[in-house]
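Recap quiz, item 2
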Amino acid sequence: MVRNAVRAISFALSGVCLLSAGRALAQDNYEIQVYPSETMTPKTLLVELHSNFTVEGSTTTQFGMLATQHQEHETVEFTYGLSDWAEVGFYVFTAEKSGMGVQWVGDHIRPRVRVPPRWRWPVGVSLSTEFGYARAAFANPTWSWQIMPIVDQTIGRWYWSVNGTMVWDVHVVPAPADSTAQEKQFYYTNIAPKGVTFGPAATVTYAPSKFFNFGVEYYSYYGQWGNFVSLHYQQHQVFPVVNLFVSPKWEINFGAGWGATASTDHLIVKCIIGRYFDFSHHHAGSSESTQ
Amino acid sequence: MAQAGAAMAGAAFGAFSPLRGQTAADVKLEIAPLDLEIAPRKIIHTVAYNGRVPGPLIRWPEGKPITIDVVNRTEIPEIVHAHGLWIPSEVDGAAEEGSPMIAPGAQFRYTFTPRPAGFRWYHTHAFAGRNLKRGTYSGQFGCFYIEAKSDAGAYDQEIFLTLHDWNAYMGASGDSSMEAAYEYGTVDGRMLGFGDPIKVREGQRVLLHLLNASASLIHWLGLAGHEMTVMAMDGNPVPTAGKMRAVRLAPAERIDALVTMNQPGVWILGETREALRKAGMGIVVEYENQQGKPRWIEPPETFWDYQPFAMAQAPSREPDQIIPLRFESKFHGQGAFDSWTINGKSYPDTDAIPLREGQRYRLQMINRSTDDHPLHLHRHTFEVTKLKGAPVSGLRKDVVVVPANETVEVDFTADKPGATLFHCHNQTHMDFGFMTLFRYA
């Protein structure tokens, strides 16, 4: 599963900006994952710890947002299966940096439904929606609502998934009060556009064994839907990844991502460790267990 | 004798005639496509025997020769396997043993002497592969009851019930591999609530003959508010009859369970797991003069163990030879079925295992996979001799579940010369290599 629950939000600087930093940067890499269409098994809870470390990112505070370089993001994600076609997820985002301590960033809730497998569509399809808050020091917008159609398919050892992430910025941080009209226009066009923004993610993996697969993940931010920002302010990031399935109760994901544009953090290392908890209160193989 | 969903097979069937020079057969089976209505407006396009699911009940005295004419009115070769019977390889109904496939439009006569007595069954033994409508995914199955000469019949009513799953598709399993999943389940070809209820009277002793004819799913059955006394497994009396609130049946397993009807009402006899019961796996049991909505009462969570039904001691005779059989899977991707090996080889690239007539063999079945497998030995009955490392005896079966990462041992005497097939009764596992042959020297 790869999830890009909090869409990448760029904070760009340019010659027209009053701030001093020289490039755009991403700020919100809290949960870097591409979703599959499959939902959680009913009455099963998956607890995931997303650990992301920005090796090379922004080095200055911009538009009130802290520098990302050497920031450690820890996100705890809870996903619970409601039925064979529905789940709900909940996130607790935190950030850590030397001298800053552990900071609570925000929370999101994420219901998701899928086309039941018994419909036997040639591809898996699900629809995720996510709503939540993140502190302005760590994210912009603060309140956001996301809708994400997900399409995936497994063909033999190959697997691909595409997440069409669309985010409605419910509440963006206003442009600095002392900004000029030109700067405000730039800010609301490139930094915190109003309306719906688009940031698709995708993955392709190959499974040499049932215990692991490897592949690439891609994350992006194109800006406002129908009015994409210029390439300079877009975000494109590619992660070579390895997914380990060491036991039916555990899943592990490793990856390192390289940003391809000036607005993207240039190097992020990520690790996801997930543990499944069966709350059906049944033992595998019993008269009540479907496992 | 009252029966739900089962019929005698000897009834006239005009679709075909004996071949020239042959007398009329005792049983006639026509294999043909069928649109099976498992519930109103829920039609399953399948292949079945004599236009019904399950096929006709074949009830026959032990030791009396029987002729069964089978005509194949489908477009692919078919074959009918007599499961659990001690009969020659040529008529056992497995092409791997030498029984002939029946070509489209052709007719074949099976002649043999049914034995041993007990609850057996018949079903297609054709390859399905990736086509999840063929083989045992289809409606080609029926009960075959061989009557013992000395059966006192300590029951008031006898009911044959067959479990089957329909509309299979490839679904994900718990270990990244693909397994068949199903859209619907039925008892005797009908979803829960849409078949004729089983009619009983208070105080009756009802003998249930339960067959899991699913291509791959293990099922649990419970009768709400009642206990079931397990009398026989795979048609063979168990050494120790035991009361259960729910019974487990792996594919191809049979259980004879005696139920005393002492809770008047309208009840559900169904899958203990809600999702499978909602998919249709169940049937209504209706007491005389009782009405109302069928009730389901969750039985306590039950674990299945063969041990309580066996004797807790080693068999009296030691085997002449131990044959280790190691089961493993080969992963072909999360979007493909695994292939399976026995001792590192997939059928048909296996070496036949030689048997010497009269010798007693112990099959040491070592399951190194993460799936439970129902292993079936053709043409013989085996005795379960070791479970979870503990010696047992007296439990005679022809299918036994070898749990994931466990070892089960069974003994059998090689006294029925001829090629003998041994395989997992999960259709997909069998089709993807989980088979081997025993050959008599």
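The interface with chain B takes residues 38, 42, 84, 117-118, 120, 153-159, 207, 209-211, 213, 245, 248, 282-283, 285-291 of chain A (CB under 8 Å).
Residues 19 and 62 of chain A are 7 Å apart (CA to CA).
End of item.
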